[in-house]
Structures are given as C-alpha cells and as structure tokens.
Design brief:
The structure is a single chain. This protein has helices at 4-26, 34-49, 56-87, 105-117, 129-172, 183-195, 211-224, 227-237, 249-262, and strands at residues 95-96, 124-125. It has 270 residues and is an all-alpha fold. It has one domain (1-263). It has a two-stranded antiparallel ribbon. The longest helix has 44 residues, at 129-172. The relative contact order is 0.13.
Length: 270
Amino acid sequence: MEQPLHLAAGIAILTLVSIDFLLATIGAAPRVILSERLARGIFALLRRITRHRPARVLARMSGVIVMVLVAGFWVVGTALGWTHIFLSAPRHAVVLTQSAEEAGFWDAAAHAGHLLSTLGGAITRPGDTFWNAVQVLAGVNGMVVLTLAVSFILSTVQTVQLGRAFAALLHSQPKGAEVAPLFGRLADIVAGLNSAPFALYYSHGRAERRLPEALVRMARDAAAQGPEVEDRFYDLISDLPHLDLPEDNAARFEALRVWAGHQRLGRLES
C-alpha cells in the first residue's frame, strides 16, 4: 500500500534542505536560511559557555564545530528526505536483497546512505524498475551535495585565512599609518565573507588574528585620518554579514563594535 504521508514528508524535507544548501553554497550572498540560523545558534551557545572565562582552546575549534554540524545538517537532512520517499512505497522502493522482504525504516535509511555516498554496497535493492530509476536521482543528489559541500568548506577556510592575514597585517602597521592603502584588500575580504559567511565563526586565540576586532581598530584609525577616509571605510564594510550600519559615523562605530563583540568567544586572552 502506498503511504502518501511519507512521500509528502520526504519531498518537503528534501526541498527545504536542498534550497538551503544551494543558497548557502552557490548563492554568493548572506541569506536568512536554516543553516545560517543553525550556525548562529551554535556559536551563541559557545559564547554563552565561555562568557566569563578565556577561550583560547575553544577559539581554535569553534569554526570546525560550526561547519561540521552545518554539513551534518545538510547530509542527514538529505538522507532523511530520501528515506521517507523510499518508505512511501513498501515492497517497491526498497526490499532486502536476499529475501525480497519489505525494508523497515533503518533498512531504508541505510539504503539512502549507501546511495548518497557510494552508489551501492547495501544489503537492500530497489523493488522494481521505476524505483531503480528514481534511485539514480538519489545517487546524483548525493554526489552534488558532497562535492559542493567540500568546495564550500574549502572556500570558507580560504576566506578565514585571508581575514587572519589582513588582521595580522593591520596589527603590524605602525601607529598612525594610513589605512587607505589597505582598502583594496578589505573589499576582497568583505566580498569573501558575503560568499562564505560561516568564516566569521572561526575565531582565534590571539587578538592580532581576529578580523572583527581588527576592523574596530581600523575604524578608529580611519576616523583619525579624516571624514573622507572614514566614509570610504564604512562604505566598504556595509555589506558585512549581519551588520546594519546607521547614517551617523559615531553610531556606525558603535554598531561595528557591537557586531565585533557578537563574533567574539567569551573573554579571549590576547
């Protein structure tokens, strides 16, 4: 007997996770999506845990923790969607290879996992030709998810490295040095964070490697070098993820300072 509720649930889960995944990996802009909310929630929990203590060790792990859980959400969500789709047609979608008996939930879940990762090797098989063709889509879906997820993680790590290099370069500048020559690199970093906003959740144990705090310092230096330089600085950072800048420069600095605080894990030691 067909089970339409399983089919509806599977399609809904698969659609939701797929849209979220595609917007995150190839959307090239920060968006209010499930994975971003998940990442912000995880980082907020880490901040709460370390609110009153140094977090040098956790700062080196925060980005990894966030990215592993986000990637897990995409993979598990995709697998769960296909599991429900397979359960919608007992004795047709998935059966046990040796006995041809109807597969249960865990058998269907294992079958989906094998399709998404290896395209075979399970103790289950499709029950008829139609579902054999449908399961090709599951294999292609898994290939796309795994490939794009790896590429996205590599892009995120590259953005993290650029941000840390920029923070170190700014920290090495002598006091009072002009910041305008660094605006080109700043524009590249802001664009990178728009494409890979999860890079903000990679903290660091050393103050001179933290991009958000480096931007606060740069804002002070830009303000000291005149209104034109200051306006250019705020124009360049206006596209930073989760940063809403008001019109007044004094208010802009306060908004930037608060934003940087939200990217900080606890009382990090310098």
